[in-house]
């Protein structure tokens, strides 16, 4: 029987990740909450399933999706901001974990965020105890622990920094803004190419049972970085009026270098 890598959530990261893994010779199953997106996934070579997690139920053929998957990548971010009703992220993850009891999955990759470190100051690494300051951060930590503490499978948690890549860059929202705070804070970003590269490296080296901060190792200040990015794109420069002497957090990546000294593929500049 063919063994699959499963990607729960083929969105901005999950879809190109699935495409890349197929190019590397893996068989991939993937889910989407949009029926209209099914043909696109199939076009990319992904065995596609229409599945939606709510806080009350898993809608769609979850057991069929999980069948024959050896590695499950959980790439469903908490959507606890913006307009519309808010659903409990941890409740969704609890339902997912219950569904996993009927599967034979041995390894899980849980996509998390450096947001779990909240308002920590100074250098932060994987040994830093997360103290999240937002609802989404708190539920991410709870969800990390939900899978990490279950001995039924071996889980690696990847805490990505701010995501940048095609059609996604903070400067699009910051351009021309006045009186921004945090100008002296270091940026903690990572490009889509490296998100995919790091996940592929973890799979290739069977590096499960770890917590990994995945952030590009250079950290210019926000003022310096976003000024340069605005100039490059011919956008209005954002203006910072930060006089705060707070020591902002700088995310350090340690564990990733255990994975055959991973070399970052794409700079954040």
SSE layout and pairing:
Layout: E1 4-8, H1 14-23, E2 28-32, H2 38-43, E3 47-50, E4 52-53, E5 58-59, H3 62-66, E6 69-74, H4 89-100, E7 107-113, E8 122-124, H5 135-148, E9 154-160, E10 162-164, H6 171-174, E11 189-191, H7 192-204, E12 211-214, H8 222-232, E13 249-251
Parallel strand pairs: 1-2, 1-6, 2-3, 6-7, 7-9, 8-13, 9-12, 10-11
Antiparallel strand pairs: 4-5
Helix pairs in contact: 1-7, 4-5
The shape, in one word, is globular
Proper CATH architecture: 3-Layer(aba) Sandwich
Oligomer: single chain
Give the termini distance in whole angstroms: 44 Å
- Identify the CATH homologous superfamily: NAD(P)-binding Rossmann-like Domain
Highest CATH level, the class: Alpha Beta
Give a structural overview:
The chain is α/β, with parallel strands linked by helices. It has a single domain (4-165, 189-215, 249-258), classed as Rossmann fold (3-Layer(aba) Sandwich), CATH 3.40.50. 28% of the residues lie in helices and 20% in strands. The chain has 8 helices and 13 strands. The strands form 4 sheets. Strands 3-2-1-6-7-9-12 form a 7-stranded parallel beta sheet, with helices on both faces. Helix 1 (14-23) packs across helix 7 (192-204) and helix 4 (89-100) packs parallel to helix 5 (135-148). The radius of gyration is 19 Å and the shape is globular. The protein starts with a strand and ends in an 18-residue tail after the last strand.
């Amino acid at each position: 029987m063919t063994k699959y890598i499963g990607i729960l959530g083929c969105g901005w990261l999950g879809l190109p990740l699935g495409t890349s893994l197929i190019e590397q010779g893996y068989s991939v199953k993937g889910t989407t909450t949009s029926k209209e997106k099914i043909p696109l996934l199939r076009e990319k070579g992904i065995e596609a399933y229409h599945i939606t997690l709510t806080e009350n139920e898993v809608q769609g053929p979850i057991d069929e999706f999980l069948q024959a998957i050896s590695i499950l990548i959980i790439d469903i971010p908490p959507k606890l901001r913006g307009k519309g009703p808010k659903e409990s992220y941890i409740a969704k993850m609890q339902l997912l974990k219950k569904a996993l009891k009927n599967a034979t999955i041995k390894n899980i990759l849980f996509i998390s965020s450096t947001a779990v470190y909240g308002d920590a100051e100074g250098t932060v690494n994987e040994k830093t105890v997360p103290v999240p300051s937002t609802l989404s951060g708190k539920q991410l930590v709870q969800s990390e622990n939900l899978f990490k503490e279950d001995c039924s499978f071996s889980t690696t948690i990847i805490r990505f920094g701010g995501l940048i890549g095609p059609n996604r860059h903070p400067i699009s929202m910051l351009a021309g803004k006045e009186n921004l705070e945090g100008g002296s804070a270091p940026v903690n970003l990572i490009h889509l190419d490296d998100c995919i590269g790091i996940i592929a490296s973890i799979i290739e080296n069977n590096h499960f049972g770890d917590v990994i901060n995945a952030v590009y190792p250079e950290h210019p200040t926000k003022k310096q970085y976003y000024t340069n990015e605005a100039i490059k794109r011919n956008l209005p420069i954002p203006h910072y009026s930060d006089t705060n002497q707070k020591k902002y957090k700088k995310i350090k990546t340690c564990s990733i270098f255990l994975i055959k000294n991973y070399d970052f593929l794409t700079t954040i500049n």
